[in-house]
Structures are given as structure tokens and as C-alpha cells.
Amino acid sequence: MKKVIGAILVGTFLFTAAACASDNSQSASQNQMPTAKPVKDTIDVFGQVKYKTSKSIYIDFPAVVASIDVFSGQVLKKGDSIITLDLKNAKSQIKAKENEIDLAVLELKNMKITSGLESSKARNNKAVLQKEIDRLYDEMGIKKTEIGEVNDEQLKKLQNELQSLNTQVEDNKNLIGIHSKRKENEIKKLEDELDEKKNEYDNALSLIAGKAMEPGTPVDEELVNKNRKIAELQGDYDTKKAALDNNSDSDIIISNNQIQAGTERSTSEIERKSSEISRLQGEYLAKKAELDNGTDPDIKLYQMQITKANDYMSYLIKEGYADDSPEYLEQKRIKEEAVIAIEKVKSVKSYEINKLLGAVADANKELDYLKKNLSSKDASLQLDKVKKAKQEELKLIKKSIDDAKYELEAIKKNRQKEIKQLEDQLETLKQSFSDYKVDKEKELKQISLSITNNELSIKSTMKDMDNAAANRKKELEQIVLNIAQKKVQLDNLELDLKSEIDRLKIETQEKKIELLIEDLGILKDKLKKNYINGDKVISEFDSGLVYSIECQTGDVLSSANRVATIIDSKNLHVEASVPEEFIKDVKIGAKVDIIPIANKAKTYSGKVEKIAGLAKQNNGDTSITVIIGIDNADGFIVPDYNVDVKIKK
């Protein structure tokens, strides 16, 4: 929104400048035609890159995550590995199912062979049965008993199968109940965590807005502490600014006191410096007089040595000593050394006099400086320095307040992002739980169908047993009437009964094989998905981008586990918010220039694809979301990139 307001202000400034230029031109030359005011031909707003297409990858077969081959945000090509799976369990199940099918097929072959042999044997026994007509009644009774036993055995087998299926239903229901309870607990825990985070966030915002809270009310401490810091900084800023405006700041008071004390001290120093100058001038004049008059004690001492040497040399000449005698030469040396010493003393004394003269000059300069420092202008400059330092301190505090406010907004955005992630996780968990229940309901329906078929088989067998009992009575009566005819009926009954039992067994075995093959096909189909290549989970997009990885190395996968989400990084669009005053100029199909904040040297072209039917408000500003397609996405821009958008009118 700041960028939009900035663009409006810049546009207003340019428009005003153009209007002023036009007015000046008219006043300069009334004969010229008035120029038209420039009209901006684009709408400049701020937008964010979003993705259109994504792929959630689910694993619905037994596997273990061997390794994660990518990281969140990684760019993928079609066929690149995302996750490596350990498929030992799935392969073991497939192998076991294949072995079970092979065994069932072998059993079916044996059934067919046995059925054929028994039928042939029954036909070969016709002649034997004809010779044993006397024992036919007993054998008929035995056969009927055997038929009842066969039916009883088949009924018992079906009842056992029915009991097994019912047990399987109960086991599945218990398993579903346990899994559902665990999933419900996970959902409840995630909902509680989401509610707690939302509650803390909302309470923190209410507290920041000034709403009273009961003691112990949970709040987002980081938000509250950051807002408290802003309030403390603002209070410190207001206090120091008021102190600066009212000249009640301690440093300003101290500075004023120091200026006043400095003025008094400078007056005292001027008096002291004037006394010092007088003393130095007196000392200078005294020493100069001693040097000029030859009354310096050191010079007088050496002059006495010279006088004494001259007197002694005169005495030696009078006594007849030559001027090159040792005694004469010694006095001459003493005289020469005294002369040299006098020159040295004069030199030293001159240096000291000049030094005193320089000290007098320096003292005069210091006196002038002290007198100048007594002016009110210098005092004001000192006070201005203190005030300027205080103003700089206020600027730093103001910057700290702005930084803290920026950090507060960043914390708010992070909390909103965390809440959105929790909401997405909760939705995913609920969807996974729903898919699980649908799969289990299908399994229970399949088992229920098997139970229904089994119950029908039991009823059919019991009916066969009742029919067999009725037929036995008729057959016994028929044997009495016509022994020869009964012999043929007995043969036919044996063949039909044996054929029917064998047929039922073969059909049951064939149905079992069909179900096994169907189960095997379902399991293999689960491994034939487009994103499964051997033991690798791969990318289906030419320019995929890892949006999330939702598993870890070592995770055991079974049914409807989402392990990753991949987005198509080339199939992107931009979502931009256009202020309501400009939306009338935005048309479907309008050309758009898209400039990423990450590299403003790049420009992408696009077109307006959709205009939202509803407006939204933010801080009192009303805007409408516009969806913009990107014509030449090259992989540089990725979802959530910020971009400048120029929509052509």
C-alpha cells in the first residue's frame, strides 16, 4: 500500500509540474495553442508472485523413507529424485501374494484332476453295483449318510469361514477405532495448539490496542514485550524532547551553569594573567638592565678574574718575566677563559631575557584570549553544541522506535504465517483421516459382501441337505418298486452329486484365485504411479520447486501418507491489489510489465487474466485483487517474490 500511495504522490507531482509548465508557456506566448495535460498510461501497483499448479505426493503402500534427496525450495527437473524409499515390505507382500496365487493355481489343477478320476471311477463301478443288487438297500443308506456327512462338512467349513470373516470385521473395527482415536487425538492436539496460538495472538493485539485483560490471560509475550519496548522508547523520547524544548534538561542546565561559572573564572584568570605579565615585564627589565650595565653577578665575577690576571701579568713584566714565561702564559690563559666565559654568560643571559620577552608576549595573547572568551556569543555557541547533541540523541531514539515498530510488524507477519501453517497442517490431517476412513469403509464393505455370500452358501447347503433327505425317501420307495431302474438312478445320483461338489470346490478356488490376482494388481498399481520410478519418488514437472517435505528419514509409511508437495515454478501468476479509484481502467487482457524487486533490471511481460468480484479493505484503504499471467517466466522469479506491476490502460 505504501508503494501505491508513493506512486500516486509521484504521479500527482508530475501532473502538477506539467500543469505549471503549461501555464508558464501560455503567459509567455498567448498566440500559441495550449498544450494538452500529460496523462499517465499505466497503473503502478505492488504485487506478489503465486503458483498455479502443485502436486501433493501420497504413499499408499508399505514403505520406509530411506533418504530425503532434496531440500525445501530446491528447483527440480522432470525425473529428479525427491525421496528414496525402502520397498522391502511392499516387495515381500507382492512376493507372498504371488506365491499364494501359485499355490492356489496348483490346488485348482489337483482338484480338476481328482474330479476327473473320481467321475471315471464312478462310471467304471456301474457293473460292480449291478452285481451287488442284494446289498443295494444298505449301500443306498450308506450313500445317503455319506451325502449328509459331505454336506455337514461343507456346512461346517462355511460356518468356520463365516466366523473368520466376522472376526476379521471385528478386528478391522477395533483397528479403525484405535487408529481413529489416535488421529482424533492428533487433530484435537493440533486444534488446541492452533486455538492457543490464535488466542495468544488476538489477546496480544487487544492488549496492544489498550483493551483491559484479566490477570493470567495468555498473550503472545514477544508481541507484548516489543510493544512495551516501543512505548518505553516513545516515553523516553517525549520526556527528553519536552526537557529540550523547556530547557529543563540536566545537561543543558549544567552547561548553563558551567558557562556562568566559566565567565566568573575567566575574570579571575584575567586578573591573575595581568599580574603575571607585570611580574614577567619587571623581571625582563631587571635582567636587561644587569646585562646592559654589567652588574650581573656572574659577569662581575669573571671581570674580577680578568682584572686580577691583568694586574698579575703587569707585575710579572715589572719583575723581568718574559711574556712567554709559564707564569705569564698561565695568567694570560686565565684572562682568555674569563673573557670567553663572560661572552657565554652574556649569551645565556640574552637567551633568558628573550625567553622572558616571549613569555610576556604569550601572556598578552592569553590575556586577549581570556578577554574574548568573556563574550556572550561564545557562551551561546557552547549551549548550541549541547542542544545539538540532545537533538541527535532524540533522532537516535526516534530511529529505535521506528526499528522496533518494523520488528513488531515482522513478528505479526510471522505469527500469521505460523497460524496459517497450523491451519494447513490441520486441514491435511483431517483430509488424511477422512481418506483413511473411506478406504477402511471400502474394506469393511468387501468383507460384508463376503459374509453375505457365505451366508447364502450356508442357506444353499442346508437346502441341499433338506432336498437330499426328501429324495432319499423317494429313492428308497423307488428301489422297492423297480430295483433295475434304481440302479441307474443311483449311478446318475453318484455322478451328479460328485460333479456338483467338485464344481463348487473348483468355482470357489477359481474365485479365490481371481481375488488374489486382483489384490496383487492393486498392490502393483500402487507402485506404477507417474511419480514412482523404482525406489525413487520423482518430480513430474519440468521446472518443479520443492514447496514442502512432510516426512523424515526412517518414517514408516502405509496408507495415504503425504510425503511432499511440489509446485510448477513455470506456471506462475501475480496477485496485485489495485486501489478502487483505478480499477475502472483495468481490463481483462490488458498488457502488464512485471519488474521483480530482487532484480529491477529484469522486466517480464504479462496480461490481466482475472479481476476479483469482491473488494477488500486494509487500514481503511479499499482495493481489488487482480490476477496477472506471466508470459515469459524464466525460473528467476519464484513464488512469494515481491514485484512492481505496471498495468497498461
UniProtKB/TrEMBL annotation:
<dbReference type="InterPro" id="IPR050465">
    <property type="entry name" value="UPF0194_transport"/>
</dbReference>
<feature type="coiled-coil region">
    <location>
        <begin position="87"/>
        <end position="207"/>
    </location>
</feature>
<protein>
    <recommendedName>
        <fullName>Secretion protein HlyD family protein</fullName>
    </recommendedName>
</protein>
<dbReference type="GO" id="GO:0030313">
    <property type="term" value="C:cell envelope"/>
</dbReference>
<feature type="signal peptide">
    <location>
        <begin position="1"/>
        <end position="21"/>
    </location>
</feature>
<feature type="coiled-coil region">
    <location>
        <begin position="476"/>
        <end position="526"/>
    </location>
</feature>
<feature type="coiled-coil region">
    <location>
        <begin position="353"/>
        <end position="439"/>
    </location>
</feature>
<keyword id="KW-0732">Signal</keyword>
<keyword id="KW-0175">Coiled coil</keyword>
